[in-house]
């Protein structure tokens, strides 16, 4: 808002303010955190899939608490893998050699994947925040 004029930007506004670079910086940092947590099987494939397409902008809403819970609680990790259809390999890590698996991991960690309270199915959401 400048004086009495309100300006709204579309995706081109992001280019004007070089926000894409900021998204990529955040994305690369969080991807390294995920890799260092030891929850994924294939580091290079995860890095490739997680940093491509629309994924970099998703990392703006990355939830460190979700990563820590998945990393430290095997029961929770197994339950979330089952709920969100994330394939695990025998060592208990997520299979990150498949782009769909990586997409599901990113959605969960970036609050874009939630469980529908009515039918208990995983759903993709625009965003989530606590309301109570």
**Segments where pLDDT lies below 50 for 5+ residues?**
none
Total of DSSP H or I helical runs spanning 4+ residues: 7
* Helix residue percentage: 40-55%
What is the terminal separation in angstroms?
A: 31 Å
State the strand order across the main sheet. Answer: 1-2
How many β-strand stretches?
Answer: 2
Counting helices, strands and paired strands, the structural category is mainly alpha
Mean pLDDT over all positions: 87
The major β-sheet equals: 2 strands, antiparallel
β-sheet strand percentage: under 5%
Overall geometry comes to: globular
Give me the Rg, rounded: 17 Å
* Secondary-structure element string: HHHHHHHEE
In short:
With 132 residues, this protein is mainly alpha-helical.
Describe the protein in words:
There is one protein chain. It contains seven helices and two strands. The model has no long low-confidence stretch (mean pLDDT 87). Strand 1 and strand 2 (122-124) form a beta hairpin. Helix 2 runs antiparallel to helix 3, helix 3 (43-50) crosses helix 7 and helix 5 crosses helix 6 (74-84). The longest helix is centred in the first third of the chain and has 19 residues, at 19-37. The protein is globular and about 60 Å long. It has helices spanning 11-16, 19-37, 43-50, 55-58, 64-72, 74-84, 99-109; strands spanning 113-115, 122-124. By secondary structure, it is mainly α. A two-stranded antiparallel sheet has the order 1-2.
């Amino acid at each position: 808002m400048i004086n009495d004029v309100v300006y709204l930007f579309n995706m081109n506004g992001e280019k004007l303010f070089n926000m894409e670079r900021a998204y990529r910086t955040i994305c690369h940092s969080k991807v390294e955190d995920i890799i260092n947590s030891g929850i994924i099987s294939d580091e290079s494939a995860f890095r490739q899939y997680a940093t491509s397409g629309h994924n970099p902008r998703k990392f703006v809403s990355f939830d460190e608490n979700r990563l820590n819970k998945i990393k430290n609680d095997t029961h929770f990790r197994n339950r979330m893998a089952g709920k969100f259809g994330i394939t695990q390999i025998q060592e208990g890590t997520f299979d990150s050699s498949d782009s769909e698996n990586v997409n599901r991991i990113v959605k969960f960690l970036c609050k874009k994947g939630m469980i529908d309270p009515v039918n208990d199915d995983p759903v993709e959401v625009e965003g989530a925040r606590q309301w109570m």
